[in-house]
Amino acid sequence: MLKAFFSNWKRRVAQLVSMGIIGEWTFYGIFRCPFAVPYIGCGNCPVIQCPGRGLWLWTWILIGMSALVFGRVFCGWVCPGGLVSEILSMGPLLKFKINGWISRLLGFVKYVLLGLSLYFYFGLSNPRWAIPIRTGEFFKSVGLTFEHADPIWIYKTVFVLWALCLSVIISMFWCRFLCPTGGALEILSRFSLFRFIMNDKCTDCGLCRKHCFMDTRPSRKNCAQCGECKDVCESEAIEWKRLL
User: Fold this and answer.
1) From CA 184, how far away is CA 67, in angstroms rounded?
2) Residue 114 domain flag
3) How many domains does the chain have?
4) Which end of the chain is more exposed for a tag (fewer CB within 10 A), N or C?
5) Domain for residue 205, yes or no?
6) What is the rounded CA–CA span in Å between residue 26 and residue 38?
């Protein structure tokens, strides 16, 4: 299992480097961000300790540009939440899958949450649901945020944590079905310049999907452009290609 997890060592290195750069910001976004929609109000955030104050603008610009060039590569190579989801997806409970109409129905939820996020940000000016704890001990500040937050902030945070933990049972549950950022990148990835594709050699054996942590196939819905499927394709039917 660990051997398979580290088979694409370049991707793991990229994920670990990303965790070192934006991992703390990711943590703050879940556990201390006072806004209804985290990660996009950082320029006006009073939480002094959060590194997102200096990262958010250029990070989002680079994420958007990467999606237009390489598709949903941020999810597969950079996102700290994606790495955590992958780790949680390892284990004996990983075999539980969602297929058919249930999978298709759940696949729309991330777009609904994306729409809600845009409404809260542009329509309601991204309201604060928690009292911003400006500074203090790292974990003590988290406790104070939960203690003084509005109930709706607590519900939101518990929902996100619950969805992440569901990856133990259903592979990459948050990333596949609920992540608003994933939904936005899914839309942008349709116009990407480069991506993994299946060529005419494909025999439709299904090995790529069986191996995929996102339970999909190259360039299909939820493909994170990780390239993990390329090495397991016995027909050599998967290639990295420029489309335009």
Assistant:
1) 9
2) yes
3) 1
4) C
5) no
6) 9
In a structure prediction context, what are the per-residue pLDDT tens digits for the chain, which is 244 residues long?
555 566 678 999 999 999 999 999 999 999 999 999 999 989 889 898 899 999 999 999 999 999 999 999 999 999 999 999 999 988 755 566 777 788 889 999 999 999 999 999 999 999 999 998 888 888 899 999 999 999 999 999 999 999 999 998 888 999 999 999 999 999 999 999 999 999 999 999 989 998 888 999 998 999 999 998 998 998 999 999 888 7
Residue where the block lists tokens 């993990």: 228
Two structure tokens written together for 16: 């670990």
Query: Nearest CA to 209 among 109, 108, 103?
Result: 103
**214 is a domain residue:** no
The answer to whether position 38 is within a domain reads: yes
Please state the separation of Cα 98 from the chain's center in Å.
19
Domain with 125 in it: 2-196
**Which H, E and C letters describe the chain, residue by residue?**
CHHHHCCCHHHHHHHHHHHHHHHHHHHHHHHCCCECCCCCCHHHCCCCCCCHHHHHHHHHHHHHHHHHHHCCHHHHHCCHHHHHHHHHCCCHHHHCCCCHHHHHHHCCHHHHHHHHHHHHHHHCCCCECCCCCCCCCHHHHHHHHHHHCCHHHHHHHHHHHHHHHHHHCCCCHHHHHHCHHHHHHHHHHCCCCEEEEECCCCCCCCHHHHHCCCCCCCCCCCCCCCCCCHHHCCCCCEEEEECC
pTM of the model: 0.90
